[in-house]
Amino acid sequence: MIQIEGISRSFGERLVLNDVSFTVDRGRMTGFVGGNGAGKTTTMRILLGVLAAHAGRVTLDGHELTRADRARFGYMPEERGLYPKMRVQEQLVYLAKLHGVSAEAAKASASSLLERLGLSERANDTLESLSLGNQQRAQIAAALVHDPIALVLDEPFSGLDPMAVDVVVGVLRDYAAKGVPVLFSSHQLDIVERLCDDITVIGGGKILASGSREGLREAHAGREFEIELSGDSADAGWVREQPGVTVTHLDGGYARFEAESDAAAQAVLQVAVSGSRSTPGAATDAAGAVSTATSTTVRRFAPVVPTLAQIFKEVVQ
Ligand SMILES: Nc1ncnc2c1ncn2[C@@H]1O[C@H](COP(=O)(O)OP(=O)(O)OP(=O)(O)O)[C@@H](O)[C@H]1O
């Protein structure tokens, strides 16, 4: 596990990181999100030792990070660092060898990554001759080619089309599945939401929220619920009459409502179900939903959980 503990950093008089702490667990993908100038790149640079912290420390599995540890990290910096005039495969092999990988292993690793990232056909082209999206794939390959013990990627998805995003997501997931801690920053909240196990939100140099994706969504869930009835003539209009409930959206058998309490919300479910039960011939289907003789079914009842974009807006305000 990588632990960032109480990191602070100023540029001149300006404090740009203020007591930043969060963890990047092994085997999990951690998304690092924040607005422009929030402090993501500065944090990543400190993590990699490219920049010094003025306070705090970074540890790996409990010991302070050494130069040797950092040399085995995979880093994709904000300012992309490959040589424009060098051929892609040659460049990857060269970088792997710089990290101490044998020539043979470097060639094998470069070929396999180029294949995986859909760049095999461009292996002998110079970087500058590739499209921006393909240059980005090559940058990702460069961060991975020495089989890193941890991955720190600054905006790895910028400039990638949706197909390429899926390819890169698959590759990164494989690294996480091997037990590698993976930290990446992104402004594309939909990708972060889809990809991440854990999320850290930074704003104005301070950590505003940090935790598992599900934990954050639950913690920021309001008192809004939704119920969906299906059937011949499903009508959720009766929810409006329930005590302690305000319907915010109604469409046939679908109602979204705010409940004063969990009990008020549960009462809606009970009415939906017991209404069904009081109907002769009620039956439970294979999915456990209760059907009536007129075949009205409670298809769904759940709290409305916010998207990452909604949580982000809430914590950044
Ligand atoms: N070398 C530097 N000298 C002075 N100020 C700096 C330097 N590097 C970063 N900063 C300032 O530190 C703050 C945080 O910048 P940083 O690049 O870490 O943000 P970020 O979250 O990565 O932003 P973005 O999403 O726009 O890339 C910004 O206000 C930036 O101007």
From TrEMBL:
Membrane association type: Peripheral membrane protein
GO BP field: response to antibiotic
Compartments where located: Cell membrane
Keyword Nucleotide-binding: yes
ABC transporter domain residues: 2-229
InterPro entries assigned: AAA+_ATPase, ABC_transporter-like_ATP-bd, ABC_transporter-like_CS, ABC_transporter_ATP-binding, P-loop_NTPase
UniProt KW ATP-binding keyword: yes
PROSITE patterns: ABC_TRANSPORTER_1, ABC_TRANSPORTER_2
Cited Pfam families: ABC_tran
Protein family (similarity comment): Belongs to the ABC transporter superfamily.
PANTHER family documented for this protein: ABC TRANSPORTER ATP-BINDING PROTEIN (PTHR42711), ABC TRANSPORTER ATP-BINDING PROTEIN NATA (PTHR42711:SF5)
Protein name: ABC transporter ATP-binding protein
